[in-house]
Every structure is written in structure tokens, then in C-alpha cells.
Write a structure and sequence with these properties.
- The complex is a heterodimer of chains A (about 400) and B (about 120).
- In chain A, about 40% of the residues lie in helices and about 20% in strands.
- In chain A, the strands form three sheets. Chain A has a seven-stranded mixed beta sheet with strand order 3-2-4-5-7-6-12, with helices on both faces. A six-stranded mixed beta sheet of chain A has the order 9-11-10-13-14-15, with helices on both faces.
- In chain A, helix 3 (about 60-70) runs parallel beside helix 5 (about 90-95).
- By secondary structure, chain A is of the alpha/beta class.
- Chain A has two domains: about 5-245, 3-Layer(aba) Sandwich (Rossmann fold), CATH 3.40.50.970; about 255-390, Rossmann fold (3-Layer(aba) Sandwich).
- In chain B, about 15% of the residues are buried.
- Chain B has a single domain, classed as Alpha-Beta Plaits (2-Layer Sandwich).
- The mean pLDDT of chain B is about 90.
- Chain B is α+β, with helices and mostly antiparallel strands and about 120 residues long.
- In chain B, a hairpin with a 5-residue loop joins strand 2 (about 60) and strand 3 (about 65-70).
- The chains are: A alpha/beta (about 400), B alpha+beta (about 120).
């Protein structure tokens, strides 16, 4: 049994990293994730960790150093946000292509321009196709739990794929919540020792990493990589179950909140799910069959399982905390709609963009979404497939 | 190409390569558009070609003497010809297509007979 602490989401991530005690961390500060490497640096200075902390000159260098250290055979972690994550871009593909199980805490934040340091999902959604496993956390407890699980998922022999664990900038990262900090030793035992597949520092078995693959090899390597990423789905489920058995908090691929018989369903990820659950509790008291499908694993996207859980829905609203940027809707929306295409129910699905650049999403806004879903079921008509929550001026 | 092409579920994870020195299996000679031809009669054994060759394609015997060109790996870059200090040059580039079906000795005579 862990002990209850009152700390921020960033501190939750830092404590997880302290307990994991990786061989190497290479990081560069950027709001709102700065307190993660800052707190970790303090832990190292205080002798609570023996991690080699590499202070680099950019996030591109941070991920490059992580790749080198991971290829050498180390357990490696880092943290970043927004433009820092964007600057890592090409190295993210190299980390996943080289199958290096680096674990990264991402505090999700808006991308410039206009310059904004507040929470949204522009960064992680922009990087959704970099081949990394993506776990999204609702609160500090999940950020802490997911980072610990991510190590075990990424390092699984069938997976060997880097993983990021996202939490919402400021909503979670800078908010003090009460959560359970587990015993150091118990966490250490849970993640176990890391056994790298082909460590470069093993001079008895020389190995080349990062070699070139001409047209007659590249395709096979990318599909081999895809298999590793897809195989992580079962491992996410298995590790989530083991985590529940060990620490009492159970995790699956997603969280179904009052979803069994739900007719009006919101699909969302991150801190907005807390507000949504609160609204659902109120609606349920009034006899309204409302429910939430909370996305935990976004990559690989467990489309079959998610479509199955949505079969009772009569109308669905998908909340994306990112601009659709010219697509038919936000990334979560297009995934959910696509997942439902192969099922019997062709439920109306609408899409909202919300919370850009730290814009508040309040109970009344979530309420308005459920109102719209009820109207769709009553009239059988979708007036707007795409809309914005809490935007000044009507979207048209 | 001498290497065995593996299926996607046979390749080593992350593109790692466990057998060192396997670039020998990659026959870069197939890239060649032009090839160097060597004239041993004027060669002074300065070994400049051997020093500058980016593909270790200058063949050398046990006495350290240049003995010819390894056409399995020579990409035909022409650096050896550029570096050759003799006058006239002891290495010359010809079109690969014009070398088809001819022995090295025949080519040498053809290329260098007009000189001297």
C-alpha cells in the first residue's frame, strides 16, 4: 500500500522516474515539463538516484543522446513539451525505427504560433505517427502509474518500442492533487531489470546500430517495426492487469465510464475526462444514460475494442484538444469514425475541438455537448458534424 | 547481390546488424558507369591510388605492390585517375559499356597503345 501525497503531475512524473532510476536521462527544459527534469536533478543531487543526467543544448540533442545511450544498452528516459517535442521530430522516428525502448514523459502543450505555453494536445497528436506507443493520462495518479507501466511495456521483448506518457499541461502538470506514491522497492521489483537486446557496449558480441537500408531492405524493417508496435497492445493490457494486482489500481486499453448501457457518449482523452465524469454522474441521477469512453492507449489505436464498447451508443461526441488542421475532424474523431465503419451500428458521430492553448472547458460546456447529443437522437439529424467548445463567435 | 534477402518477419529487430564486416556482401561494383584501366608499364608504385581509393579497391600483393583493381567493389569514381602522378597517367577511365567482353589485358592495350 502506497502513501497518499499531495503533489503536482510533474512531481508525480519525477517520482516515477526517481523510482525507475534509469541509467541515463538527457533532457532540455521547456514549459510546462521543466519541473520534471528539475526535480529529477534535485533527486540526483540529493543522492536519491544515480542516473547520469545529460544536460544538452536542445531537445533534438536530448533525443539524440537518449538514442545513443539506449543503443549502448541503457535504460533511458526523458521529458519534454510542445515545441521541444516538435524539435525532436526526426529523432523520434529514429528511436522507434531502432527499436529503443526509451520512455518519455510529455506534458502536452499548444504549439506556436501564436506563442502559447498552456495545455492542449497539438504536440502529441502531431507526433502520433512517429511509431511511439502513446499513453494519455487523466490526472497525476495516472501520469505516475503510466510512466511505471510504460517502462515494462516498452522493454517487453516482443515490443521493444519507445513509449511516451502524456499528461495535460498545467491542468495536470501544475495542479496539486492527492495521489498514491508506491514503495520504492515495490516499483523496482515491478519493472524488473532491463535486458537490452543488442547493447553496443557488449564487446563480446559486436553489433551495428543505425545502418542504412536500401530499397531492398527498408520496407521489411518498417513492417517489422509496425508488428512490434501493434504487439504492444496485448502487453499494455497484460501490464495494466499486473499493475492492478500489485498496486490495486487496474488499467486496461481504455476506461469505460458508465458506458455499458450509455446512449449519449463522449469520447475524450486527458484531464477533460474528470469534468466529463462529474457531468455524467449528475445526468445519471436524472435518469439520462450518459457515458464516457476515455482513451488511454492512443498508439497503437485499439480500434476493434473501442468500437465494441461504443455499440450501445445512440449518439457520440468525440472531443479533440487539437485543431483538425484540414482533416475531416480531429485525429481522435477520424479514428473513432473509422473504427465504427466496420461495425453494425452506424451511430452518428460528431466532433468538437476544445481547450486549445489552455482554454477552459467547464461543466456547462460538457453539458452542452450532451444536450446536442440528445437533440441528435430526438430529431435524427446532425446539424453540425464539427463544432468548437467555448469559442467566441459561432463556428460556421 | 550476394546477400540473402530476408522476409519482414526474419530481419533483426531495429535494423541491427550482428555480423561485422558484412559490407563485403554489398557489391558496389554494380554501380559503375566508368571503370579505371591500369597500365603497369608506366606505374611507378607510388600507391597514391591505394591511399585515396574510398572503397579499398586497389589490389596489393604481399610485397606491398599495386597489382590491379578490384572490380567487384570499385564504383568507378575516378579518384585514382585524378591522383595518379605519372605523365602520361597510368590509370584512365573508360565507359563501362565499352569494356564488355574484353579481358583486362585487351583493354590495357586498347587504352594505352596510342601513347608512348
Amino acid at each position: 500500500m502506497g502513501k497518499k501525497v499531495a503533489l503536482t503531475g510533474n512531481e508525480a512524473a519525477a517520482h516515477a522516474i526517481r523510482q525507475i532510476n534509469p541509467d541515463v536521462i538527457a533532457a532540455f527544459p521547456i514549459t510546462p515539463s521543466t519541473p520534471i527534469p528539475q526535480t529529477v536533478a534535485q533527486f540526483i543531487a540529493d543522492g536519491e538516484m544515480d542516473t547520469e543526467l545529460v544536460t544538452v543544448e536542445s531537445e533534438h540533442s536530448a533525443m539524440s543522446a537518449c538514442i545513443g545511450a539506449a543503443a549502448a544498452g541503457g535504460r533511458v528516459m526523458t521529458a519534454t513539451s510542445a515545441n521541444g517535442y516538435a524539435l525532436m521530430w526526426e529523432m523520434l522516428y529514429i528511436a522507434s525505427g531502432m527499436r529503443l525502448p526509451i520512455v518519455m514523459a510529455v506534458v502536452a502543450r499548444a504549439l506556436s504560433s501564436p506563442l502559447n505555453i498552456h495545455g492542449d494536445h497539438s504536440d502529441i497528436m502531431g507526433g502520433r505517427d512517429t511509431g511511439w506507443i502513446q499513453l494519455i493520462s487523466e490526472n497525476s495518479q495516472e501520469a505516475y502509474d503510466n510512466i511505471i507501466q510504460a517502462v515494462k511495456i516498452a522493454e517487453n521483448k516482443n515490443v521493444m518500442t519507445p513509449a511516451l506518457v502524456a499528461q495535460d499541461g498545467f491542468n495536470t502538470s501544475h495542479t496539486i492533487e492527492i495521489w498514491e506514491l508506491e514503495d520504492d522497492q515495490k516499483v523496482k521489483e515491478f519493472i524488473g531489470e532491463y535486458e537490452p537486446l543488442y547493447p553496443m557496449l557488449n564487446t563480446d558480441e559486436p553489433v551495428t546500430h543505425g545502418a542504412w537500408a536500401p530499397p531492398n531492405w527498408y520496407f521489411e524493417h518498417k513492417i517489422s517495426q509496425l508488428k512490434g508496435l501493434l504487439d504492444s497492445k496485448d502487453v499494455v493490457e497484460k501490464v495494466g492487469k499486473e499493475f492492478g494486482e500489485t498496486f490495486g489500481r487496474h488499467y486496461g486499453l481504455y476506461e469505460a465510464y458508465k458506458l455499458d448501457d450509455a446512449e449519449y457518449v463522449i469520447v475524450a482523452a486527458g484531464s477533460v475526462c474528470g469534468t466529463t465524469k462529474d457531468i455524467i454522474d449528475g445526468l445519471r441521477e436524472d435518469g439520462v444514460k450518459a457515458g464516457l469512453l476515455k482513451i488511454r492507449l492512443f498508439r497503437p489505436f485499439p480500434y476493434e475494442e473501442l468500437a465494441e464498447t461504443l455499440q450501445s451508443a445512440k449518439a457520440i461526441a468525440v472531443l479533440d484538444r487539437v485543431s483538425p488542421a484540414g482533416a475531416q475532424g480531429g485525429p481522435l474523431f477520424t479514428e473513432i469514425r473509422s473504427a465504427l465503419y466496420d461495425t453494425q451500428s452506424r451511430t452518428p458521430v460528431i466532433n468538437y475541438t476544445y481547450g486549445l492553448g489552455g482554454r477552459d472547458t467547464q461543466p456547462k460546456h460538457i453539458n452542452s455537448v450532451f444536450e446536442t447529443l440528445k437533440r441528435i437522437v430526438e430529431t435524427g439529424k446532425v446539424e453540425k458534424q464539427f463544432d468548437c467548445l467555448n469559442l467566441r463567435g459561432e463556428w460556421r | 547481390m550476394a546477400e540473402k534477402l530476408l522476409n519482414w518477419d526474419e530481419v533483426l529487430i531495429g535494423g541491427a546488424i550482428k555480423d561485422p564486416g558484412n559490407s563485403k556482401q554489398y557489391e558496389t561494383g554494380s554501380w559503375r558507369v566508368e571503370r579505371p584501366v591500369w597500365n603497369q608499364d608506366t606505374c611507378i608504385q607510388c600507391m597514391f591510388c591505394w591511399v585515396y581509393c574510398p572503397d579499398s579497391s586497389i589490389k596489393v600483393d604481399e610485397n606491398g605492390k599495386m597489382t590491379g583493381i578490384d572490380y567487384t567493389f570499385c564504383k568507378g569514381c575516378g579518384i585514382c585517375v585524378e591522383q595518379c602522378p605519372t605523365k602520361p597517367k597510368s590509370l584512365k577511365m573508360i565507359l563501362e559499356a565499352e569494356s564488355k567482353g574484353k579481358t583486362e589485358e585487351e583493354l590495357r592495350k586498347e587504352v594505352f597503345s596510342s601513347e608512348k
